[in-house]
């Protein structure tokens, strides 16, 4: 057994002063049993906790550490920026440079506004879409998570489903009524909703590759079908690429699948680990944002110089090193191939979904193309598997309904270790 005394003690203390002992619900280990580990540092592929344990990290801060932890590229940029002060609340050259870089990389973005989290990005994007169209309703998809804005906490994935609160108290009926939900990958259902609410739908927001019910990929033609529907109905199509942006390709899932939305929301990787989000899209729509237009959205710390320096370093690296994506794809493919071999050896047949450097194992034999299928997973088995992996020094997301993220710091020899741990954990998890 690995040590956990100090983490356990800190968790006990934390619960007295922090709700549930954590600053974001997805960090709690409620769904898998046990207490969360308290981290001290991280380097390359590894996390180190208070008890001196080392873990191979497959969360990577839920996505942003695409180059591994404490990457020199990002650390140096941050260190260089610090002596110039941490915040001005006034415009900087770096904000212009990062905006230009994002515009050059993301197909749908002609203008972009920086914010401080993915939640802010999605909340702002739908406000702009509503202001632009003069309509109130939005369509989202079951199992997709777009942050904790009121409008999105209806049939939400990620921590909301993990904790069994997909429809949160505190969201007013009025707000809930303006959010329509459709099953992921079901174009007919979306068409019916748009038809039944003709002229009232401002936006369709979707994770073009869903990462918040475990990893679910879009069926062929699904994203293009949404694009066509939005064109016909004057609806703003928003791709929430908070997870997929700059991860699946330099231009995100929209580049990978060749479908360009009207607006996109971004986060995580743009900050290289600093708290950053962004939303952008067609000029005509983005010019509705204050002070260019009437839709208000602001932020004291938005475009923070340290965060912008980290982001510039990260995005510049990714733009200049497209081979990063082939490397990530091939490493992740080997991990998944190893897991599939393990299952074959053990006579198991669970579903693994993968796109590039994101993947999930679902403890179900059903094909997982949406939330209903994801929910057929054996979550108790997942909990045992998670804890067996943790005991073997592998840090997975503590929920069946999350994707895993691979970084470039995960090399072939670490893949071998991971695959061996997976074999043993699969065996152990089935011994009940
Ligand atoms: N959208 C998506 C697709 C996400 O995965 C997340 C968070 N994982 C968010 C929005 C919210 O981002 P944040 O946690 O930075 O507010």
From TrEMBL:
Q: Which GO terms describe its molecular function?
A: glutamate-1-semialdehyde 2,1-aminomutase activity
In Pfam terms, one family for this protein is Aminotran_3
**What is the source species?**
Pontibacter toksunensis
**N6-(pyridoxal phosphate)lysine: residues bearing it:** 268
Keyword terms, alphabetized: Cytoplasm, Isomerase, Porphyrin biosynthesis, Pyridoxal phosphate
The family line of this record is: Belongs to the class-III pyridoxal-phosphate-dependent aminotransferase family. HemL subfamily.
Catalysed reaction equations from the record: (S)-4-amino-5-oxopentanoate = 5-aminolevulinate
Q: What class of enzyme is it?
A: isomerase
Descriptive protein name: Glutamate-1-semialdehyde 2,1-aminomutase
Pathway field of the UniProt record reads: Porphyrin-containing compound metabolism; protoporphyrin-IX biosynthesis; 5-aminolevulinate from L-glutamyl-tRNA(Glu): step 2/2
Where does this protein reside within or beyond the cell? Cytoplasm
User: Mostly located where?
Assistant: cytoplasm
Q: What binding partners and quaternary form does the record give?
A: Homodimer.
Q: Tell me the cofactors it needs.
A: pyridoxal 5'-phosphate
Does the keyword field hold Isomerase? yes
InterPro entries annotated for this entry?
4pyrrol_synth_GluAld_NH2Trfase, Aminotrans_3, Aminotrans_3_PPA_site, PyrdxlP-dep_Trfase, PyrdxlP-dep_Trfase_major, PyrdxlP-dep_Trfase_small
* EC code: 5.4.3.8
């Amino acid at each position: 057994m690995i040590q956990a005394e100090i983490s356990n003690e800190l968790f006990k203390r934390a619960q007295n002063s922090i709700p549930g002992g954590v600053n974001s619900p997805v960090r709690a280990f409620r769904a898998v049993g046990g207490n969360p580990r308290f981290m001290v540092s991280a380097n390359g592929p590894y996390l180190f906790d208070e008890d001196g344990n080392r873990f191979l990290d497959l969360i990577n801060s839920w996505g942003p550490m695409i180059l591994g932890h404490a990457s020199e590229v990002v650390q140096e940029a941050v260190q260089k920026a610090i002596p110039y002060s941490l915040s001005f609340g006034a415009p900087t050259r770096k904000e212009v440079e990062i905006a230009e870089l994002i515009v050059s990389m993301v197909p749908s973005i002609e203008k972009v506004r920086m914010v401080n989290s993915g939640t802010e990005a999605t909340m702002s994007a739908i406000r702009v879409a509503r202001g632009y169209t003069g309509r109130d309703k939005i369509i989202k998809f079951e199992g997709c998570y777009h942050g904790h804005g009121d409008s999105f906490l209806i049939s939400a994935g990620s921590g909301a489903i993990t904790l069994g609160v997909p429809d949160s108290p505190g969201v007013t009926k009025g707000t809930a009524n303006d959010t329509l939900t459709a099953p992921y990958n079901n174009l007919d259902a979306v068409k019916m909703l748009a038809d039944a609410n003709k002229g009232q739908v401002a936006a369709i927001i979707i994770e073009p590759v869903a990462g918040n019910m475990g990893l679910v990929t879009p069926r062929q033609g699904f994203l293009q079908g949404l694009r066509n529907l939005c064109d016909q109905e004057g609806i703003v199509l928003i791709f929430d690429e908070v997870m997929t942006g700059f991860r699946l390709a330099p231009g995100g899932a929209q580049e990978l699948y060749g479908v360009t939305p009207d607006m996109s929301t971004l986060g995580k990787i743009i900050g290289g680990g600093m708290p950053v989000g962004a939303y952008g899209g067609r000029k005509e729509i983005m010019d509705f944002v204050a002070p260019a237009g009437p839709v208000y959205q602001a932020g004291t710390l938005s475009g923070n110089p340290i965060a912008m320096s980290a982001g510039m370093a990260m995005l510049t690296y990714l733009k200049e090193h497209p081979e990063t994506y082939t490397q990530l794809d091939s490493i992740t493919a080997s991990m998944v191939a190893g897991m599939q071999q393990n299952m074959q050896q053990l006579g198991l047949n669970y579903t693994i979904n993968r796109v590039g450097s994101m993947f999930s194992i679902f403890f179900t034999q059903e094909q997982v193309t949406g939330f209903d299928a994801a929910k057929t997973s054996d979550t108790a088995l997942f909990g045992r598997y998670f804890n067996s992996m943790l005991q073997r020094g592998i840090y997975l997301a503590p929920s069946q309904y999350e994707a895993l993220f691979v970084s470039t710091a995960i090399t072939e020899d670490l893949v071998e270790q991971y695959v061996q741990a997976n074999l043993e954990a699969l065996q152990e998890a089935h011994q009940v």
